[in-house]
Design a protein that fits this description.
This protein is of the alpha+beta class and 139 residues long. The protein is 32% helix and 18% strand. It has a 3-stranded antiparallel β-sheet with strand order 1-3-2.
């Protein structure tokens, strides 16, 4: 029996122990409803809500994406000081950032090697390493 988008969304929220409000379910359905991984900005997710007929403000989208990250359901990938992407795939993996089109995609993890990381300062630990490889067209 095929899982519906609403079932996927509800199950995903339950993994993060998040209450399934109408707005969370609507956004979760857009993010994971078809079972595919997504890289979205708050603005691109907000634009998708209009196409689905959902009434969700941009501020709610930002707050909900932050709640999804805090619950461990997504990772935020910062590509520069003013642009963040939110990734539904939460395992460690590198990304390509396509500068010409402002898109973030997964890069092949088996083709990258990190030989050594610096020691974390006293009283801290490394929680995650983000690898973003910026691409542009050759001239």
């Amino acid at each position: 029996m095929e899982m519906t988008a609403d079932q996927r969304a509800s199950d995903w929220l339950a993994k993060g122990d998040l209450r399934p409000t109408r707005q969370r379910i609507a956004l979760a359905r857009l993010l994971v409803g078809d079972g595919q991984d997504r890289h979205v900005t708050a603005e691109s997710l907000f634009a998708l809500t209009g196409g689905e007929g959902e009434k969700v403000s941009l501020a709610t989208v930002y707050n909900t994406l932050r709640a999804f990250c805090d619950a461990g359901l997504m990772n935020e990938i910062v590509v520069d000081g003013s642009r963040s992407y939110f990734d539904t795939r939460i395992d460690d993996h590198p990304h390509f950032y396509w500068e010409d089109r402002g898109a973030l995609t997964d890069a092949p993890a088996d083709q990258i090697e990190i030989a050594r990381l610096p020691l974390a300062p006293d009283g801290t630990e490394i929680s995650r390493v983000d690898v973003v490889i910026r691409l542009r067209k050759t001239r």
